[in-house]
């Protein structure tokens, strides 16, 4: 849990002004842009309160981070490190965006979700106690929730649902389907729409196109399914990775943390 130097996470936000009683309270013009030194658990950080598009108080945003004026940050949420929140994206509840994470294209981070590393979220929803880390790229109306973790160089570019205690890492490509329970997907596996990975399923390579049979031994390879559609998806993913590599070469790393997935 994040804490200020003197107050709990909730008090750090609510206690800054006795005139602020609800999330919809207008932010006094004198407080707009005011920078304070706070300690959220990683040492002193210069931060200021975000003002939401409706004029209400938002959460704390480090001076090293950026949140567009059109984005929403709840009073109890935090945007720290070198992270960026663009457009009409939303950081709700007690969510945390940090490191070099990018939240864009209307993406939503809610609950107690944490989004960090060098990941990018675009047009997705991450909630519950989900974690998105590493250099993961999550887009295409995907939904990550529960206690699911996504990291490594994973690419999720479709309306997949990842929940439960699922773990997705490595260089996995996900175009759809559902990954749930204690399933673990790693290596260079490809998960296509219609796939269902649940229970204690483990996949490390190949393509999954439908429900994984319960009798499939752990660490078995799923046979590749040929076809131009898959080839086109993989070519698009390769181009996306090249672009991300070039962007990251110039990204500051003083707030970068080790991956935990």
List the main descriptive attributes of the protein structure presented here.
single chain; 261 residues; mainly beta; UDP N-Acetylglucosamine Acyltransferase, domain 1; 11-stranded mixed beta sheet; 2 helices; disordered N terminus; disordered C terminus
What's this, in brief?
The protein is mainly β and 261 residues long. Helices cover 11% and strands 28% of the residues. It has an eleven-stranded mixed beta sheet, with no helix packed on it. It has a nine-stranded parallel beta sheet with strand order 4-7-10-13-16-19-22-25-28, with no helix packed on it.
Walkthrough of the structure:
It is elongated and about 55 Å long. Helix content is 11%, strand content 28%. It starts with 8 loop residues before the first helix and ends in a 12-residue tail after the last helix. The relative contact order is 0.09. It has helices spanning 9-14, 228-249; strands at residues 35-39, 44-51, 57-62, 66-67, 72-73, 78-79, 84-85, 90-91, 96-97, 102-104, 108-109, 114-115, 120-122, 125-126, 131-132, 137-139, 143-144, 149-150, 155-157, 161-162, 167-168, 173-174, 178-179, 184-185, 190-191, 196-197, 202-203, 207-208. Mean pLDDT is 79; it is low at 3-25, 213-234 and 243-261. A hairpin with a 5-residue loop joins strand 2 (44-51) and strand 3. The chain is mainly β. An eleven-stranded mixed beta sheet has the order 1-2-3-6-9-12-15-18-21-24-27, with no helix packed on it. A nine-stranded parallel beta sheet has the order 4-7-10-13-16-19-22-25-28, with no helix packed on it. An eight-stranded parallel beta sheet has the order 5-8-11-14-17-20-23-26, with no helix packed on it. It has a domain at 73-249: UDP N-Acetylglucosamine Acyltransferase, domain 1 (3 Solenoid).
């Amino acid at each position: 849990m994040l804490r200020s130097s003197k107050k709990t996470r909730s008090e750090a936000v609510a206690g800054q002004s006795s005139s602020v009683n609800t999330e919809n309270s207008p932010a006094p013009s004198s407080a707009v842009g005011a920078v304070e030194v706070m300690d959220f658990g990683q040492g002193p950080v210069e931060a200021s309160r975000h003002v939401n598009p409706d004029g209400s108080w938002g959460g704390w945003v480090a001076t090293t981070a950026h949140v567009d004026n059109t984005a929403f940050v709840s009073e109890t949420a935090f945007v720290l490190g070198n992270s960026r929140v663009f457009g009409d994206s939303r950081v709700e509840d007690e969510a945390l965006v940090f490191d070099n994470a990018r939240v864009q294209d209307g993406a939503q981070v809610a609950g107690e979700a944490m989004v960090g590393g060098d990941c990018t979220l675009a047009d997705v929803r991450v909630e519950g106690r989900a974690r998105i880390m590493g250099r993961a790229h999550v887009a295409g109306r995907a939904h990550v929730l529960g206690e699911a973790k996504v990291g490594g160089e994973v690419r999720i570019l479709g309306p997949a649902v990842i929940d439960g205690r699922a773990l997705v890492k490595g260089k996995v490509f996900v175009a759809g389907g559902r990954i749930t329970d204690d399933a673990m997907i790693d290596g260079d596996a490809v998960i296509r729409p219609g796939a269902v990975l649940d229970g204690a399923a483990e996949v490390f390579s190949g393509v999954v196109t439908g429900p994984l049979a319960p009798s499939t031994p752990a660490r078995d390879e799923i046979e590749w399914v040929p076809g131009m559609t898959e080839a086109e998806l993989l070519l698009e993913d390769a181009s996306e990775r090249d672009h991300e590599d070039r962007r990251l070469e110039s990204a500051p790393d003083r707030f970068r943390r080790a991956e935990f997935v």
